[in-house]
Amino acid sequence: MIAAMRSETLKLVTVRLWWILALILLGYVGFTAGLLAGLFGALGNQLAASPGAPQLPPESLPAIVYSTTTAVGYVFPLIFGALAVTGEFRYQTLTPTFLAEPRRGVVLAAKLVVVGVAGAIFGVVGLVASMGIGAPVLALTGNDGALGSSETWLLAVRIVLAMALWAVIGVGVGSLIPNQIASIIVVLAFTQFVEPILRFGTSIWDWTAQIGQFLPGSAGDSLVGASFFTSFGAGAAGAVSLEWWQGGLVLVAYAIVLSLAGLATSWRRDVT
Amino acid sequence: MDTMRGTSIEFQSITKSFGAVKAVSNLSFTVEPGVVTGFLGPNGAGKTTTLRMLLGLVRPTSGTATFAGAAYRDLPNPLSTVGTALEASSFHPGRTARNHLRVYAAAASIPRERVGTVLDLVGLHDDADRRVGGYSLGMRQRLGLAFALIGDPGVLVLDEPTNGLDPEGIRWMRGFLRARAAEGRTVLVSSHQLSEVQQSVDRVVIITRGEAVYEGSLAGLESGARVRVSAVDQPALALALIAAGAEVHPDAGVLVATGLTADEVGAAALAAGIVLSLLAPEHVGLEEAFLGLVGADPDPAAQVVPTATEEAR
Questions:
Q1: Residue B23 in contact with residue B51, Cβ under 8 Å?
Q2: TM segments (chain A) (predicted)?
C-alpha cells in the first residue's frame, strides 16, 4: 500500500495538471473573496448607518468571505480527483499500473488517499487566496478579518477537510464514469446546474428540505458551516441543514458509495 | 552477464469470448526458458488477448495461464518476475520517460537507480527528460522495452516489439532478445510477421482465429510440411503412412505425405517392412508454410454477408 501511494503521488506531481489547477483556484478564489469582502463590507456599513434596515452583522463577514474557498472552489478538487482516474483510462496507463500492482483494490485505495491529501493542499491554496486577499479588503472597509479568532481557524480546518473529501469524491466519480469527457461534463452539470436547482427546489417544503440537506453540496456547506450561497439563497427560504460533522459524514458516504461502485464496475473490467 | 533462470509459461485450455465471438479458443502451449519463442498469427488472431490474459489484465472465460504454476496476480513481485511490453502506447503524453519509469518502479518497490540503468540500456539516455508526447513510435517502443526491463525479470513478454523500429532497431532487438534467452531467461515475442522474428526465434507457436495451428521449431515448420515418398508397393506404403498419422495424396506417380517429418516417414516404412524408392522432404519456404497455416480457412466474411441479406428481407 505504501509503494502504491508513492507511485500515485509521483503520478500527480510529474504532470502539470495539479499546479495549473492550483493557480486557477488561487486566482478564482482570491478574486471572489476580494469582491465579496469589498461588497459586503461596504454594504454592511451602509445598512448599519440606516436604522430599521435589515442588518448584515459584521462578525459573520469573515466566514462568508473565507468560505469562498469551498463555495466556489470545491469543484477544483472534485475535477482533479476525477481526472486522476479518467486519465488512466484515457492514456491507457492502467496497463502498466496493473502490471506493477495487480491488486486493483490496492491501487484504488492508494489513489483515494493520495488524491485526498492533494485535495487538502488545494484547500490550503484556496485559503491562502481567500484569507490573503479577503482579510486586507475587509480591513479596508473597516471590518475585522478575525484572523486572531479560533473560530476562524476551526473554519479553515473544516474547509481543508471539505476540499480533501471533494477530491476523494472526485476519484469515486472518475472510477464510476471512466470516460474523461463524460466524467467532467457530469461533474460540471451536476455541481453548477442540477444541484443548485435541486437545493432551491427542495428548500420550498419542509419535507423536501429534509432530503435536500443530504445533497452533496448542502452537506459540504454544512461541514464548512458557512457559504454565501446559504447565507443569502436557500438559507433565507428556511432550508434545514446538518451539523458540521454530519455534513462531513455525508460526504464520506458519497465517496465510499461512488468508489465501491467504481471498484465493482470499471475497475474490474478487462484492460484492453 | 550472469545467468538468470526464467520460469516457464503455461497456457492451459485458455478461452476468451467477447459475447458470441470467441477471440481465443481452448489454447494450450508451454513457453520454456532459455530460448526465444515466437507467438505468431495474423492481426486479430487473438495474440494480444492471449498475452493480456496471461498478465491478469483480461479475465479468461475459462482456462488458466501461469508462470510455473502461479497466476500473474499471485506473483509476489510481478515486475521483477515478468517484464512486459504491450503494443498499446500506454504513456501519459505530459510525463517524461524518466518519470514514467519512476512511477512504476515506485509501485513495484524497485530501486530508483534501475530507471537510469534501463534508459541507458535501450538508448534513451539523451531523451529521458523529454515529455513522451513528443516521442517517435520507435522511441515509444524503446521506452516500452525499458518498462519491461525495469525489474530485471527472468521472463520477458513482448507484444509486437519490432513495430515502428527502423532496420537498425530491428537488428538491435534481435540481438537483444537472443542475449536475454542465452542468459537463461524466458522470452515470448509476438508478431504478425514471420519475417520480422524468424532470425531471432528458436520456437514458434502459430495461432489463427484464436486457435493454435502449429507449435514447434522453426525448422520443423519448414521441412515437416510435405514429404515426397514412393515405394514399389505404393498402396501398402499409403496405408502404413496413414496408420502413422500422415495425410497422403498421390502426385505425379509418387505420394505426398503431410503431417510427418521425413524421418518419421522413413521409420513408418521400415516398421511396415516396405522398401522405399524415394524419400524427399519438400522445402516450401518459411513464409509460404506460415501463410499456408494461417490463411487456410475460408474467409468467413464471404458467408456472413448473404445471411445478413436474408435476414434483412
A1: no
A2: 20-43, 63-85, 106-133, 153-174, 181-202, 249-267
Q: For residue A237, give the DSSP letter.
A: G
What is the ipTM metric for this complex? 0.90
Cβ contacts below 8 Å, chain A against chain B, sum to 83
Q: pLDDT for A240-259, tens place per residue?
A: 678 899 999 999 999 999 99
Select the residue of A7, A10, A272 nearest B52 (Cβ to Cβ): A272
pLDDT of residue B1: 43
Highest mean pLDDT among A154-163, B82-91, B250-259: A154-163
B92 alpha carbon, distance to own chain's centre: 28
Chain B touched by A4 (CB under 8 Å): yes
CA angle B197, B199, B200 (to 5 degrees): 65
Cell numbers at A79, concatenated: 475535477
A158 CB near a chain B CB, below 8 Å?
A: no
Q: Is B252 in contact with B234 (CB distance < 8 Å)?
A: no
Contacts of A114 in chain B (CB under 8 A): none
Dist. CA B186–CA B278, nearest whole Å: 41
- Å between A160 CA and nearest CA of chain B: 27
Q: What are phi and psi of A141, to 5 degrees?
A: -85, 10
- Cβ contact A15–B58 (<8 Å): no
